[in-house]
Write a structure and sequence with these properties.
The structure is a homodimer of 524-residue chains.
Chain A: H1 5-10, E1 25-28, E2 33-38, E3 70-77, E4 90-98, E5 111-114, H2 121-126, H3 129-138, E6 141-145, H4 159-162, H5 174-191, E7 199-204, H6 206-217, E8 224-228, H7 243-255, H8 257-275, H9 279-286, H10 296-312, H11 329-338, H12 346-358, H13 378-383, H14 407-418, H15 426-431, H16 436-441, E9 447-452, E10 470-475, H17 493-516
Helix pairs in contact in A: 5-6, 7-8, 7-10, 8-9, 8-10, 8-11, 8-12, 11-12
């Protein structure tokens, strides 16, 4: 429940929480601020379409044109888990493949499979430079299957048909997606006569969750998984609900106590604009919004989104993952906020700060805070069905307005939006999570959970070793799946070390696999 | 393909193979003898209804009236793996429960969960005396959930509605059934405040497959599984297709070479009746069939069923599991066959033999070989969808007519019967099976695969230890899940030993679990 009564009126938005692991934009309820509903930034070059991230048209998000691949399609079964007859029982799943460095089927060359997440697969492929970097030394085949209902991998023949309603969306689940990967890779191996090639899974964010879960459920298909920034514990009450926003807040506080304070103080001022005559017009003008906002929550969401996304991509060098940004972007945001006289207007300072995020190139003249009036996309559906990841904002520690996750209003809103009732206990029923240390101590093997503690999603991650082969590689300073990115000359030493450890562990998995297959000559 | 051309005409039956793990009756194709299509004996007291085994009305199958339990229902989700809206989205799943010996929630008393298989749950409950025997020493709660689409646990409100067509049957799968068990037990634990109680799975035959798979897929829900006579490798080409019929044949040959030979020679004689004028009438009369058979294959199936079932229940003492039978029933069958002059009619001898199986009580005046003209039941559907377990009969080693599994005709027949195409590679995609020793060597834990080598299903079982905690307990002489039966004074020493080992291993699992939970005082 919202602890500040006045906010209850100020932000009368949808109540359910749809928190794409890669994109965040806040919404709020009739009672409380809420974590993001919408998943995408609302302005400028980094375009989005169809509620997905990383469209192929957003060319500046493709940092390495040297990544070459073939694009193929695979006829995939719509429903792996029943024998119901459908008019559209199959769909075309897209995947990218690169065999440039593959040592081949005869040599049992390994296959590196990226578990595609909530967006166009090209975007994940080119932002997973680590796989491309290490493919030569492993002689690995690279395969990047797209997640069903994202990119061009649309059941029912088109995006519109796939996203028509709750019924058409009903096969958009993590379990179906994982079997897609399993089915695809088995078929591919058969076609390549590479049945004996070991498969190693990779994934970041939601893709990392899929990689970890796939290794847990399908050990006969993949020998191990690198699950980077995979918050598989962000369900039910496994981790404290405050964690996400506390980490975002600490990321800002670490750079500047003043910056943290300015942001924390800004919400009530923002709110006051919502109550004034002409307030919405004034605040829209102040924040260079192209068209006047319809409610103050639209600005609130826009700011929340910027802060949360900044915490995720607080990389030690300039990058264009979510937005073109400088190195340590939170530091730059806080510099912009701090670089005002003490008596300066707090909202001017906040605007200067978020402009680093939304307009680092300086090319944007005005912002569109609400470019998806339907708010309909794949992750919203997933959040309204199985991906119920509770979050709260603690007034003691968070720089965001206070709110507490409320399942009832979340549920009601999902029923309103999709006619579907979330199953908040399903993920832990299907994949576990509670007492994971005890459960997996003598069970399972070969998973790396990598996390950087600057990443707000690390709060829901596995941060300690579970066994000798289910291990946590944690860096104090890393942001969201930084380790999956391409190596650079200016990588900090701790990142170089983390990747080195990952490579060694993956080598051990493969070496052990070859040993068991009686192929000792392999030398990596 | 049928190796004897004349048989091709003689047995023009359905081509697909539906081999209930507990009941077998043969069918044959236009080209070849086939393993059983129908699942149930056709006569006398052991009644079946609705294509299920072990109806509550078959009282003589309930050996121990001292087994007391409460019967309850649980509202179960029809489709765990999608969010499709159904008019009938839930159904009532029945389960039996006994807490007489439970040490309770506070003591974290263990829960023994039997994974119900293809029939009425009471029947499995009372034929799993081992669980009842050991409950007191473990302080265990006993829970026996019924498998969906069997017994009274019918989706869509009734058997007729559930079995209406391929669409209504489409949620009858092993994966859905396993999640039923998971969901039920989580709910039960919550209601009993027994979240911390360890769950141990038990199952025999198909139920044993479910137990093993559930432990593999849901280690967070069950700490271990005793999978008795679970042929999880009887898929694709993991084990030789001849195995099942070879073991049946060897079971007879071991008792008497002459017996084996008489049976082997009987098929061509049987076939000659199919070609004679009045042959069907004559053979029906000879075999005391109540009404003349419509084709010679009906007798063939009836015999095949008797031999295969006898091999499964070749127990060392008298029992009434499938039929009321004496100790070592194959020995008795062969005695009856051998107890003729050398020049006696072979079919008279065969009839005397199978009469031990079908009419040990001597109460049956005539037999009904075909009491299910529709041949429609749950296992047939399962065999036509995911449970594709290839079998052949090798002319060199088998006493059955020669035939080879043929996926194409199998598929065609399933399409004809249910409008559904089998997915022969699905089980290994979902649960694995190939290279199981390598895959599970460093993965998973706490599964006992128990098998008796007299049991024809042992050919598809796990017969060697995979790791220190995934172990095989194999007895040379045991038949189908003999170890799950109630202990008796006259149990052979090897069976006593096998059960003792099982108890010790289960104790170790529970002890380890308590240790990890910091509860050291437990002493079993």
């Amino acid at each position: 429940m919202c602890s500040v009564a006045s906010r209850q009126k100020a932000f009368p938005m949808k109540t359910y929480v749809a928190f794409s692991l890669l994109f965040i934009l806040s919404s709020c309820t009739a009672e409380a601020w809420r974590p993001p509903r919408f998943l995408r930034p609302r302005s400028h070059n980094f375009s989005f379409s169809n509620g997905q991230i990383g469209t192929p048209s957003s060319k500046h998000s493709v940092p390495n044109s040297e990544y070459e691949y073939e694009t193929k399609n695979f006829t995939q079964r719509l429903d792996h888990f029943s024998f119901k007859k459908h008019a559209n029982s199959t769909f075309q799943q897209r995947y990218l493949i690169n065999d440039k460095h593959w040592s081949g089927a005869q040599a049992k060359g390994p296959i590196f499979l990226y578990c595609g997440n909530e967006g166009y697969i090209e975007w994940f492929a080119v932002n997973s430079g680590f796989m491309w970097d290490i493919a030569p030394q492993f002689g690995a085949l690279l395969v990047f299957p797209e997640h069903r209902y994202y990119g061009t991998s649309m059941p029912y023949g088109s995006h519109d048909a796939a996203y028509k309603d709750g019924d058409s969306l009903s096969y958009l689940t993590a379990e179906q997606a994982i079997v897609d990967f399993a089915t695809l890779i088995l078929d591919l191996k058969k076609n390549l006569s590479a049945e004996a090639s070991p498969v190693v899974l990779f994934g970041g964010s939601y893709g990392g969750m899929l990689a970890a879960w796939m290794r847990l459920k399908y050990p006969h298909i993949a020998i191990g998984a690198l699950a980077s920034s995979a918050p598989i514990l962000q369900f039910e009450d496994i981790v404290p609900w405050d964690t996400f926003y506390d980490i975002v807040s600490n990321d800002f506080r670490r750079e500047s106590e003043n910056c943290f304070r300015v942001i924390k103080d800004s919400w009530s001022l923002l709110e006051s604009y919502g109550k004034k005559d002409e307030g919405l017009h004034e605040i829209s003008k102040k924040f260079h919004i192209c068209r006047d906002v319809n409610g103050i929550e639209e600005i609130g969401n826009w700011l929340d989104s910027a802060y949360s996304n900044l915490a995720m991509v607080d990389y030690p060098y300039d990058a264009s993952f979510l937005m073109p940004l400088p190195a340590y972007p939170i530091r730059e945001v806080c510099k912009a906020i701090d670089n005002f006289p003490n008596d300066a207007d707090i909202l001017d300072r906040v605007f200067a700060g978020v402009s680093i995020y939304y307009n680092y190139t300086g090319e944007t003249k005005c912002f569109d805070v609400n470019d998806d009036p339907h708010g309909e996309n794949g992750w919203n559906w997933q959040a309204c069905t199985e991906m119920v990841m509770p979050m709260s904002s603690n007034p003691e520690s968070s720089m965001f307005p206070s709110f507490t996750f409320d399942l009832e209003s979340y549920t009601n809103d999902c029923i309103k939006s999709f006619g579907v009732e979330p199953r908040p206990y399903w993920i832990t029923t299907e994949f576990g999570g509670h007492s994971i240390g005890t459960v997996l101590k003598n069970y399972g093997s070969n998973i790396i959970f990598s996390n950087g503690l600057w990443d707000p999603w690390s709060g829901g991650g596995v941060l300690t070793n579970i066994s000798s082969s289910i291990v946590a590689l944690v860096t104090e300073k890393g942001a969201h799946h930084l380790d999956l990115r391409q190596a650079r000359e200016d990588d900090p030493a701790w990142l170089v070390e983390q990747r080195k450890a990952e490579i060694q562990i993956i080598k051990d998995w493969i070496y052990e696999y070859y040993q068991e297959k009686g192929l000792y000559s392999f030398n990596i």
